[in-house]
Amino acid sequence: MKTSLISLCIFFIFNLGQAQVKKLEEGQNPGIGNLDELEWLVGYWEGEVFGGDAEEVWMPAVDGHMIGTFRFWSEGKLVFSEFMNLVQEGDSFTLKLRHYNPDLSAWEEEGEWTEFRLVETGPNSVWFDGLTMIRKGDVIQLHLALTENGKEMTESFTYQKGQF
Fold first, then answer.
1. Among 115, 86, 88, CA closest to 32
2. Predicted TM-score of the model (pTM)
3. Which of 2, 42, 119, 152 would be 22's cystine partner, CB 3.0–4.6 Å?
């Protein structure tokens, strides 16, 4: 009985961790979705990330594009910002973003984007390949898969609905 209970606990812990971030297999087609499903994301969001402060703003979709911005600062100094574009691509959509230093020099090469392909959507939730966003009331929980020194890890952030 004790062994079964321990096995069950390990199973649930493992699956809870796996559910935070989902991945597409190589060659796997992206999930099906429409930007209209992400109306819950529109607005101004703020929270603490990476030991500093962050703001994220999402505008309503227009012509198959939902535009967002992100900025992160620590100790009163801007560290980096992002321009984000959720792009409808047929029966799916992709999150494309570029990172910028405070002097507006881009991290990505000219013409390149960091891309997160859609895995699936749910009520007030979206799973991209390596990034998850889930809204509960006035809170959005983000889970981001990162690789640091060859080791994969998941960073989680909580945003509160804010006011301009």
1. 88
2. 0.84
3. 119
